[in-house]
Structures are given as C-alpha cells and as structure tokens.
Amino acid sequence: MKINSVQLKNMETNHITEQILKCAFKVHSALGPGLLESAYQACLKYEIIKSGLYVESEKALPLIYEEVKLDCGYRLDLLVEKEVIVELKTVEFFTDVHLAQVLTYLKISNKKVGLLINFNTKSLRDGIKRVVL
C-alpha cells in the first residue's frame, strides 16, 4: 500500500500531537491543577524541548487582511514543529469562546491542527480537545 503525501503529513502531525500530550500528562502529573497558566506553559515547553521537538512560545500572530498586516497582539501559547498550535487554559471548563479562539488561530495562521489543553482539571483527559480545521 502506497502512502501519499497527505497521509504522510497526517501521520507526522499525529506523532507530534501524541508527543505533546505525553509531555502535558507528565507536567500535569507532577504539578496537578491550581497553578497559573504561565507555569504550565513554561513547564510544558521545557518537556516538549526535552522530547526533541521544536517549540516556540508566545509566537506573534499578525492578522493579514488583503494587503493590510495588523499586529493586533495575538500570540500563540505554543507552536510545535511550526505545525501544531497549543493553547493552554486554567479554567473551570471549556467554553465556546475557547474553541473559537483556537479555530481562529488555526485560520489566521493557516495551520490545520490545534490542541486546547486545560490544566485546571483533576484528570487531564477531561481537559484536552484536539481541534482540526
């Protein structure tokens, strides 16, 4: 069976998201819920780097409308392997606004996959949403 370039890209993206989630579970297991988002972001970035993946934090995301580039102050929490957007939260539960934020970031950045991770949960499994554009 031949694998085409789209299937290969999807397999690579799945591997990246699996690695990110392994790192997130490690951080959550060590720290638990209740800390500031910035603490989880720093620790998750550290774990992702340790896993061998390239990660950028607080990556600026300009809004481009026709020929106008607007530096609106949008920032991605984490961008992993220049492909997967990771948006971190420490909230009681996800709302439609959180999902809309990730979808908007995917659209603006022309990326396909994002992870919305809420560290303020007893079980991290309850705080993960994979978002695909």
Automatic annotation (TrEMBL):
NCBIfam families linked: GxxExxY
Name of the protein: GxxExxY protein
Pfam family, one: PDDEXK_3
Organism annotation: Aquiflexum balticum DSM 16537
